[in-house]
Amino acid sequence: MKYWYNGSAIAGDQIQLSITDPGLIYGATTFTTLRVYQSLDHELTNWKGHCDRLETTIADFHWQSPNWDNIRSGAEWLSNDYPVLRIVVFPDGREWVAGRSLPVDLAERQQKGITAWVAGSELSRSLPQHKTGNYLAPWLALQTAQRLNAQEAILTDLNGNWLESSTGTLWGWKDNGWWTPPLVDGILPGLLRSHLLSSLSNVIEKTWTPDLVWEFEAIAYTNCVMEVIPIHTVLDRETQFQYVADHPSFQLLRECFTV
């Protein structure tokens, strides 16, 4: 195993941080996770989009800008061995790049779909407009979902509206079109979400109320690593929702991954 940290290529799975590091104590980091399609410069990899995401958060938080050449070098080095890269920036500008493999059951999830569990509003994302290291609430939601034999969690607001999954954007098929929650509801402005919005026709951005979610024929979540994952079953306390996992509308989403 190997990773890149603060300008250096490192072999191993241990990183050395100060016990006073705010990244360790408060989760004070920003990060982005990308999938390498052939190279960092491939259109679907969206290297610039991921760097822009980091840069926006760094500027909004008034953090020190990192050495972007170091980030690129670390990503290039790791992309030779890993198809998924996680780029982290600390408040003082230190960078950390780690790699991982795609999930071994990714193809099965993409084809057959998964079960999701609806979390309570107390597990909603912190600072949802930014991707920060304070990921405790979504992580706890996912852990609970897995204990209930579900593979993903759906985050909600105080009114019970569905916001996003613990790791991606929600999409629902209704009235011959795709629907997705709007950013104003407090969801992460995902890079793949932006790509799909610009690629699809007539997407409706509307709050996913408890009544609306009954009306969808099919739903899925998306992110830059997993692409499109249909959700066939949703567990919500005593209620169970069933959706079509092989709905033909999913092809419209999948076509957005061809260049």
UniProtKB/TrEMBL annotation:
<dbReference type="Pfam" id="PF01063">
    <property type="entry name" value="Aminotran_4"/>
</dbReference>
<keyword id="KW-0808">Transferase</keyword>
<dbReference type="InterPro" id="IPR043131">
    <property type="entry name" value="BCAT-like_N"/>
</dbReference>
<dbReference type="InterPro" id="IPR050571">
    <property type="entry name" value="Class-IV_PLP-Dep_Aminotrnsfr"/>
</dbReference>
<keyword id="KW-0032">Aminotransferase</keyword>
<dbReference type="InterPro" id="IPR001544">
    <property type="entry name" value="Aminotrans_IV"/>
</dbReference>
<dbReference type="GO" id="GO:0005829">
    <property type="term" value="C:cytosol"/>
</dbReference>
<dbReference type="GO" id="GO:0008483">
    <property type="term" value="F:transaminase activity"/>
</dbReference>
<protein>
    <submittedName>
        <fullName>Aminotransferase, class IV superfamily protein</fullName>
    </submittedName>
</protein>
<dbReference type="InterPro" id="IPR036038">
    <property type="entry name" value="Aminotransferase-like"/>
</dbReference>
<dbReference type="InterPro" id="IPR043132">
    <property type="entry name" value="BCAT-like_C"/>
</dbReference>
<comment type="similarity">
    <text>Belongs to the class-IV pyridoxal-phosphate-dependent aminotransferase family.</text>
</comment>
<dbReference type="GO" id="GO:0046394">
    <property type="term" value="P:carboxylic acid biosynthetic process"/>
</dbReference>
